[in-house]
Design brief:
By secondary structure, the protein is α/β, with parallel strands linked by helices. It has 2 domains: 1-105 and 264-356, Isopropylmalate Dehydrogenase (3-Layer(aba) Sandwich), CATH 3.40.718; 120-257, Isopropylmalate Dehydrogenase (3-Layer(aba) Sandwich), CATH 3.40.718.10. The protein is built from 12 helices and 14 strands. The protein has a 10-stranded mixed sheet, sandwiched between helices. A two-stranded antiparallel sheet has the order 6-7. Helix 1 runs parallel beside helix 12 (345-355). The radius of gyration is 20 Å and the shape is globular. Bound molecules: nicotinamide-adenine-dinucleotide, 3-isopropylmalic acid and manganese (II) ion. Residues 14, 74-77, 90, 93, 261-262, 278, 281-287, 293-294, 297, 334 line the site of nicotinamide-adenine-dinucleotide (NAD).
């Protein structure tokens, strides 16, 4: 029987609650589809700061590098907000992305049919449905550029730098074109080329790469317009490719179209197949420990893990199907509507398992 080694970084806030549900579902998928999973837990974020003083202990990097894939909950919270910038929980997350070379972040925003009424968008805007894949560059741009404090006209000032090299843009563009080839053959590259020089290089490079993908229809959009178009007419998008910061913002916006940020999964990939899988949302300190978090984004992230790293496409599909079915039967509070059964985080995990 095939056996997989999965690194587990539960993190902070709701992280442990949601990861536990995703592990249950992965174990159940293993029983059903004939594979087993061994987990190795490691520390990241605030939990790591409390235990070791730093948000990304070296041991965590080693454990993730040796695993077939990594499952992550979320990091951060008010407890660590006073940490210096380079020792915050979030710095640990950026560090693990960099250490594993996870430059391609796939964030699919789909609307599950039963959740139509949970979307804040009107039915006529949702139309036949929404299926957008945001391909976010994850190891470059302003997140990793030079930053610091300085002085200007005798007053304290600060700066962060957005910088992209041609190879960085090329490789993320290729991932996006290849994804579009497997989908509806449409790619929208999002930038701010009317203002930013890094965006002008981004656009030139994407256009050059597009010559290798004549079957994909490419268009370009400024990020402000894209933010507006996502709520005006989300059906126009197939794949969106964009920089680290624009992708962060647009994917949170896209998540709400699907009803709740608690629904949006993600895969962070490098050149190989050892990805990191995490929901796009954060540690939700406001609801942590109450057992009411929506675990579906993390469960769907396990689905992405099965698809992209573990080569178990049938198990991946079965998880998506079980989630769709579960949504017709019960909801966590964030997507609950009148007349529907309201369930806790772990009850939702159990329900998905029972439907697998
Ligand atoms: P957040 O995503 O944690 O929460 C935003 C809102 O969405 C909150 O009201 C929260 O209760 C709700 N929410 C989020 N996930 C939910 C779920 N699964 N089910 C139900 N409701 C959910 O964003 P924030 O409040 O801006 O950030 C909180 C902390 O998380 C910060 O420290 C931030 O840096 C960190 N963060 C971490 C990650 C990550 O680890 N990948 C991502 C985003 C934010
Ligand atoms: C995300 C988060 C992170 C990001 C933070 C916590 C560093 O918002 O994964 O979307 O901005 O990448
Ligand atoms: Mn984010």
């Amino acid at each position: 029987m095939k056996n997989y080694q999965i690194a587990v970084l539960k993190g902070d806030g709701i992280g442990p609650e949601i990861v536990e549900q995703a592990q249950k579902v992965l174990d159940k998928a293993g029983e059903k589809f004939g594979f087993s999973v061994d987990y190795k837990e490691a520390l990241l974020g605030g939990a790591a700061i409390d235990a070791t003083g730093v948000p990304l202990p070296e041991e965590t990097v080693t454990i993730c590098k040796n695993a077939d894939a990594t499952l992550l909950g979320a990091v951060g919270g008010p407890k660590w907000d006073t940490q210096p910038g380079n020792n915050r929980p979030e710095k640990g997350l950026l560090g693990i992305r960099a250490a594993l070379g996870l430059f391609a972040n796939l964030r699919p925003a789909v609307i599950f049919e039963p959740l139509r009424e949970a979307s804040p968008l009107k039915p006529e805007i949702i139309g036949k449905g929404i299926d957008v894949l945001v391909v976010r560059e994850l190891t470059g741009g302003i997140y990793f550029g030079e930053r610091g404090r300085c002085e200007e006209k005798g007053q304290p000032a600060a700066f962060d730098t957005e910088k992209y090299s041609v190879p960085e843009i090329e490789r993320i563009a290729r991932v996006a074109f290849e994804m579009a080839q497997k989908r509806r053959h449409k790619l929208c590259s999002v930038d701010k080329a009317n203002v930013l020089e890094s965006s002008r290089l981004w656009r030139e490079t994407v256009i050059r790469v597009s010559k290798d993908y004549p079957d994909v229809e490419l268009n370009h959009m400024y990020v402000d317009n894209c933010a507006m178009q996502l709520v005006r007419n989300p059906g126009q998008f197939d794949v969106i490719v964009t920089s680290n910061m624009f992708g962060d913002i647009l994917s949170d916006e896209a998540s709400m179209i699907s009803g709740s940020i608690g629904m949006l999964a993600s895969a962070s990939l490098n050149d190989g197949q050892k990805g990191l899988y995490e929901p796009i949302h954060g540690s939700a300190p406001d609801i942590a420990g109450q057992g009411i978090a929506n675990p579906l984004a993390t469960i769907l992230s396990v689905g992405m893990m099965l698809k992209y790293s573990l080569e178990q496409p049938q198990a991946a599909q079965a998880i998506d199907d079980a989630v769709a079915k579960a949504l017709t039967m019960a909801r966590t509070p964030d997507i609950w509507v009148e007349g529907m059964k309201k369930v806790s985080c772990s009850e939702m995990g159990d329900l998905v398992c029972s439907l697998l």
